[in-house]
Amino acid sequence: MEGNFKGFDKRAVDFLFALRFSNTLENQQKNAADYKKYISLPLNLLYLDLLEIIGQFDMDFETKPVRCVSSPYTDRRFSPTAPLKEYMYLRFRQANKSSDMLGLYFDMGCEAYGYGLRIYKASTGGVNKLKEKISANTKLFSSLVDDLKSNGFEICGAGYKKDRFPDIEPCSAKQLLNMKSFSVSKVRAINDNIFSRALENEIANAFLDLKDFMQKLAE
């Protein structure tokens, strides 16, 4: 895949690590300039390149940069002494919804990065509607989940203590049904991929691996 993203500068990881110790109001001006150079600029290029993949989904996504690309600044209500984020993220969520939005994401800190599918602003009622689709076609969803697991994805989420679907035979779909909510993700330790276009290809391929599963949930 050709694009504008060439990878993050190798100083980006060191910058995020150092930010843990220098993320103060006194250092904000210098840190903000470095954040723009090492984080914001390449992150926005990655976002623009991944829009091509998002366009291949038969779904409506929110694609405005302000909705998809993390800003450098923390919410001062919750981080009054740390003005800058010590991580970054991209997220492409279902449009025209205020809760229970299926979304694709990428995030990264100084030690690891991850990507996959999440349910944003999940509610009990919204997740239960997704489970109704899954329980109505456990064979299909088990096949989709098995394919994702074979491609290295993990199913994550808090499970119920008791089986809430005793009438359904054990299968991969049942794992989803017995979770309060769930996500599908891959997490990687920082490696050389992030310093080249290989990161974009890695994320793009993962998003495409999730396409059928996500679209069936959204139907």
Strand fraction band? 15-25%
Low-confidence blocks of residues:
none
User: How much is the average pLDDT?
Assistant: 95
Number of self-contained structural domains = 1
What separation lies between the terminal Cα atoms? 29 Å
Explain what this protein looks like in three dimensions:
- The chain has one domain: BirA Bifunctional Protein, domain 2 (2-Layer Sandwich), CATH 3.30.930.
- It has seven helices and five strands; from the N terminus they run αααβββααβαβα.
- The protein is of the alpha+beta class.
- The chain has a five-stranded antiparallel sheet with strand order 1-2-3-5-4.
- Helix 1 packs across helix 2 (28-54), helix 2 (28-54) crosses helix 7 and helix 5 (138-150) packs antiparallel against helix 7.
- A hairpin with a 3-residue loop joins strand 2 and strand 3 (112-120).
What keyword list fits this structure?
7 helices; alpha+beta; BirA Bifunctional Protein, domain 2; five-stranded antiparallel sheet; 219 residues
Entry summary:
The chain is an alpha+beta fold and 219 residues long.
Chain-wise SSE layout:
Elements: H1 11-22, H2 28-54, H3 65-68, E1 88-93, E2 101-108, E3 112-120, H4 124-136, H5 138-150, E4 154-156, H6 172-177, E5 183-189, H7 198-218
Antiparallel strand pairs: 1-2, 2-3, 3-5, 4-5
Helix pairs in contact: 1-2, 2-7, 5-7
